[in-house]
């Protein structure tokens, strides 16, 4: 008979929206987040969009008494923005950067420069081995014409595969972060279906906060009211997901922040925080560990995700073709100008020679076009290879799922 008392774990998750020189009242809000974390004394705080390492160091200094263990995940040009504060020792960490993450020439969005990734922390709490994951997927800038949907589906697939392959020795798996996907989107259904992760909002016994658990709401003074116009209640894109392997896990209580910080006129971020109280206890011998079964719906989800990847693949191939053609035309123009220059040196000048300034300007323009087109051709070639690889993985996964279903 198991007499060990259940473990109560309070988990905090927040997209901090802390972009230097761009996010409004960033330093003041980082201070408020630090004050709140120190007062509440959570067991684990999973933060995203802490883009400045200086902000992380300030939080670390302020929280060292309550959270003696922390880690900042570095990747990309400006960093992943992921960091974790914990009351319990962190035994090991690992970072996996997603293979696709938007486009470098989409400067107004900037996701490519962030190096979106998933961070893994290995922790042992009261003898229970936790694998904790924190992540931030590519943003959705336009739901009607979402050019980044194939990339986000690839990220969801890679996240699911990463969790599946790295969590086999864990007792409890926990994922928190800004997934930038609505609960019914193909990416979140693929992630949950493939890994078996449960949604804290859907499973909680008691919920307090924004209606439908939304974490991006029109009432927040930092959110874009125009973007949220189709969603009067807001959208839920921040999640705490979990599953127990050798242990049983349930969500006793889930809370989202609402409105401004206590005693202040501003909220902590443009996102609402998600706070889950998880109850973890060892399974009885009769219960045993749950054996993963294949659901027929998972085949449909993987098929749907594979279709989105194919759409992205065709778009990437068209972009690669256009850039390759442009590079060839620029190269031909440079060769033509070189021939004209050689003919001039040989004394074969025409009656009306081409003006030297215009000639040089055209050569410079052709060189710039050649360099840019070649760089984009290489980038989209890499994109094509990554999409092809993911599509092949999904094809093999579908075949394996269908074989398992056929043998049941």
Automatic annotation (TrEMBL):
It is an enzyme of class 3 (hydrolase). Its EC number is 3.1.4.12. This is Sphingomyelin phosphodiesterase 2. The chain crosses the membrane at residues 326-345, 357-379. One of its GO terms (molecular function) is metal ion binding. It comes from Pelusios castaneus. PANTHER family: PHOSPHODIESTERASE, PUTATIVE-RELATED, SPHINGOMYELINASE FAMILY MEMBER. The keyword Transmembrane applies. Its cofactor is Mg(2+). Belongs to the neutral sphingomyelinase family. Keywords: Hydrolase, Lipid metabolism, Magnesium, Membrane, Metal-binding, Sphingolipid metabolism, Transmembrane, Transmembrane helix. GO terms for cellular component: membrane.
């Amino acid at each position: 008979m198991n007499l060990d008392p259940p473990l109560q774990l309070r988990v905090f998750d927040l997209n901090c929206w802390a972009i230097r020189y761009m996010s409004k009242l960033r330093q003041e809000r980082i201070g408020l987040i630090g004050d709140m974390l120190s007062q509440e004394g959570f067991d684990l705080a999973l933060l995203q969009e802490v883009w400045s390492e200086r902000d992380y160091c300030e939080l670390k200094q302020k929280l060292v008494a309550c959270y003696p263990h922390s880690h900042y995940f570095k990747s990309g040009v400006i960093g992943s923005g992921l960091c974790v504060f914990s009351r319990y020792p962190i035994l090991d960490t690992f970072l996996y950067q997603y293979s696709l993450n938007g486009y470098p020439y989409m400067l107004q969005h900037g996701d490519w420069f962030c190096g979106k990734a998933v961070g893994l922390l290995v922790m042992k709490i009261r003898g229970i081995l936790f694998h904790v994951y924190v992540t931030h997927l590519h943003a959705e800038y336009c739901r009607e014409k979402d050019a980044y949907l194939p990339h986000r589906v690839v990220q969801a697939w890679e996240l699911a595969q990463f969790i599946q392959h790295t969590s086999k020795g864990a007792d409890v798996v926990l994922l928190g972060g800004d997934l930038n996907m609505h609960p019914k989107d193909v990416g979140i259904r693929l992630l949950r279906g493939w890994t078996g992760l449960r949604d804290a909002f859907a499973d909680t016994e008691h919920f307090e906060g924004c209606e439908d658990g939304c974490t991006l709401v029109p009432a927040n003074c930092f959110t874009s009211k125009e973007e949220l116009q189709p969603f009067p209640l807001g959208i839920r894109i921040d999640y705490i997901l979990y599953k127990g392997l050798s242990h049983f896990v349930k969500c006793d209580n889930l809370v989202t922040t609402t409105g401004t910080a206590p005693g202040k006129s501003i909220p902590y971020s443009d996102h609402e925080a998600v706070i889950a109280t998880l109850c973890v206890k060892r399974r009885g011998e009769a219960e045993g560990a749950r054996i993963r079964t294949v659901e027929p719906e998972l085949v449909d989800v993987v098929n749907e995700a594979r279709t989105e990847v194919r759409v992205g693949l065709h778009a990437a191939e068209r972009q690669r073709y256009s850039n390759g053609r442009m590079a060839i035309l620029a190269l031909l123009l440079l060769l033509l100008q070189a021939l004209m220059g050689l003919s001039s040196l040989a004394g074969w000048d025409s009656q009306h020679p081409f003006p030297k300034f215009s000639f040089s300007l055209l050569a410079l323009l052709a060189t710039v076009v050649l360099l840019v087109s070649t760089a984009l051709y290489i980038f989209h070639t890499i994109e094509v290879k990554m999409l092809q690889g993911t599509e092949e993985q999904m094809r093999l996964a579908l075949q394996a799922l269908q074989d398992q279903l056929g043998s049941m």
